[in-house]
Design a protein that fits this description.
This is Plasmid replication initiator protein. The protein is globular, with a radius of gyration of 21 Å. The strands form four sheets. Strands 2-3-5-6 form a four-stranded antiparallel beta sheet, with no helix packed on it. The chain has three domains: 10-187, no CATH class; 188-307, no CATH class; 315-367, no CATH class. It contains ten helices and twelve strands. The longest helix is centred in the N-terminal third of the chain and has 16 residues, at 72-87. The chain is α+β, with helices and mostly antiparallel strands. Strand 7 and strand 8 form a beta hairpin.
Amino acid sequence: MVTRRSADPQFDLFVPYVADLPMRDQRETMERPFFSLSKRKRLKAIEYTSRDGVFVRVTANPEFGMATIWDADVLIWAASVLNEMRKRGINDLPRTLHFHPYELLKTIYRETGGREYKLLREGLGRLQATTVVTNIRVSRGKKHRQFSWVEGWTDLQDEETGASRGMTLTLSEWFYEGILMDGGLLSIDPVYFSITGGRERWLYRVARKHAGGAGPDGFAISLQTLFEKSGAEGTYRRFKFEMQAIANENKLPNFDLSLEHGKGEPLLRMIRRDAAPSSEEPSSVSPAPPRGPKPAPPDPPPALPLFQPRHVLSADAVARIRRDFPGWDLDELQIEFDGWLASKEGRAPANYEAAFYGFVRQHHARRA
């Protein structure tokens, strides 16, 4: 624990440093294209719309550029801090966090020199300047919500030395609500922070969200769909080449990757390694270089249809669900529902659409 003396009366409000803070990621930000995957300054907007109408639009400020997936480490830290506060019985969780940058940087496994402080300030600037518009988790009667990841931030600096005496950041209401809702957070292994590539970081988050509890066959997704969800700049051909290289190296922490070829576009299968932390318990693994590939199994698992729900919902069913329970991602909910049906023999509803409607209604009641 690091202790510091300060004349600032706000010091007592600072987030206490917690060694080995269990890391949590906000579920809804783990798969959609919310962040630039490159460290280069990105000004090109991200435009994404799923097959059932869920959309994400991200625009960059010309001066700062778009928030990157490395900047999102600050949001992971904030989600983890608020989750820890809630576990300790604090009911009135703040949207504004007071903290020492030294302790934030230590928690996300970064160096703590002057360059890192400068990069942190630049990242906070991008998080505030980036604008997101989405219809994910909108309330009844609204078509979309617009926000920046951080509503504001401050850095109290010593006038003589320029050293930081403390910082604050105020989270957007949308992100804050996502932290507080039931099931809004997933545990992640701290080894995530050692991943250097932007695409690999994003793939880890996708794998953690969908393959973390998917069983021995894991989760598979077409490269075309993955490309659309990534928001990556460049061509699909280039993206496919990069995914092939990443799958061949198979160095993503906690997950095995493999490409499956057949009719149509290749599938990327993600299977959780036995040594990975469980989906319900926080990890106790310290950051380390990503592990090398495991030996290939003698017989690969059979290809599963990915992003192919058991039942294609009728237009009337989709319209009814979106009218009664707006703001939820039907792609994701169908994956969860079909997984629940497959987890026990005999779960075959006589009316799939009626059963799925009831599933979404329960999901909405728990989290709305």
